[in-house]
Design goal:
328 residues, alpha/beta, six-stranded mixed beta sheet, 11 helices, 13 strands, 26% strand, elongated
Length: 328
């Protein structure tokens, strides 16, 4: 069982931590980057710069998020363009690689080890002076018990995710790259993880977090990069992105026993910009979702129509990405 939720402990300075060195304004800088595997273009001409704090990389599965992260960490070279982390190429600069912490999406743990042994190995690999002490400290940050004797094979998905994060944190990196770190966490664990990431970003670290869940990104932070089909299709403040999404017509399904009179009344009221009738269902496009929600029930009562269901048809993440791609 995982430790009870408690306030996120302040990370304590360690004697082996490297002295801070000046870094560029963009702690991570990606310029005209493409990655091609045979006939597949995984990433296409992507450019952005990321400073300290938490930045979310939002995109559907297969969008190219993990490939971008691997290039940032120096695990694979770009086919074109340049990637700089803390002003250097992580693929060629060993010192910069040591200042990056990666928690990959893949669930790659040594299942026979307990958590403290697994994170201790990660610390030793990074050259930390006291690997076991650093491992215990990192596990405390992610609210796991360093004295838990169970092998990680007995851990839940959420506990395994936190073990990976501890391994990424154990050498006190300046840049944290976390690929879908909230996947598999329960609501309490997710909230505590987000609080920890915010705390790390507030310390001046660059925290890059990928997700394919729009609601997660809303809680992670205000700065967002949106990637789809290997291309960067939007970036900026979360509120601005939401406003851009809300400018598009929303498609609403309205099931009722008098669909034709209801559709005509919706058009006459100006609440919708288009309607289509499919059996007993009115499919309405509207720019005023809240107004439609307020007015549909009174309108149906006036017409003597019985509403059976009202639900959005395009609030899934894939539809949002399709809309953003079409805007380009």
């Amino acid at each position: 069982m995982s430790a009870r939720p408690r306030p996120v402990p302040e990370p304590e300075p360690r004697a082996d931590a490297p002295e801070a060195t000046p870094v560029p304004t963009g702690m991570v800088e990606v310029h005209g980057v493409s990655k091609i595997f045979g006939d597949v273009v995984a990433v296409s001409d992507v450019t952005f710069a990321v400073r300290s704090g938490v930045t979310a990389l939002l995109g559907p599965n297969g969008a190219g998020k993990s490939t971008l992260f691997r290039m940032m960490c120096g695990l694979t070279p770009p086919s074109r363009g340049t990637v700089r982390v803390l002003g250097a190429d992580a693929r060629r600069d060993r010192n910069v690689r040591g200042r990056i912490g990666l928690a990959p999406q893949q669930d790659a743990l040594f299942d026979r080890l307990d958590a403290v042994d697994f994170v201790t190995i990660a610390a030793a690999t990074q050259g930390v002076a006291d690997p076991t002490g650093a491992a215990r400290h990192a596990l405390g940050l992610v609210e796991l018990d360093p004295d838990d004797p169970r092998p990680v094979s007995g851990y839940s998905k959420g506990m395994r995710q936190r073990t990976k994060l501890a391994a990424a944190l154990v050498h006190d990196p300046d840049v944290l790259i976390l690929d879908e770190p909230l996947n598999g966490l329960d609501p309490v664990q997710r909230r505590r993880m987000i609080e920890l990431l915010e705390h790390l970003g507030a310390q001046g670290r660059c925290v890059l977090v990928s997700s394919h869940v729009l609601e997660e990104v809303a809680r992670l932070g205000s700065r967002i990069l949106v990637i789809a089909q290997g291309r960067l299709i939007a970036s900026g403040d979360y509120r601005e992105l939401r406003e851009m999404m809300d400018d598009r017509p929303h498609r609403i399904s309205i099931e009722a026993d008098r669909p034709r009179p209801l559709a005509a009344a919706l058009v006459e009221s100006g609440t919708v910009v288009g309607v289509k009738i499919d059996g007993d269902v009115v499919v309405a496009d509207t720019l005023e979702v809240d107004r439609l929600g307020r007015e549909i029930a009174p309108l149906a009562r006036r017409l003597g129509a019985r509403l059976r269901a009202v639900r959005p048809l395009d609030e899934d993440l894939e539809s949002v990405f399709r809309y953003l791609v079409e805007r380009r």
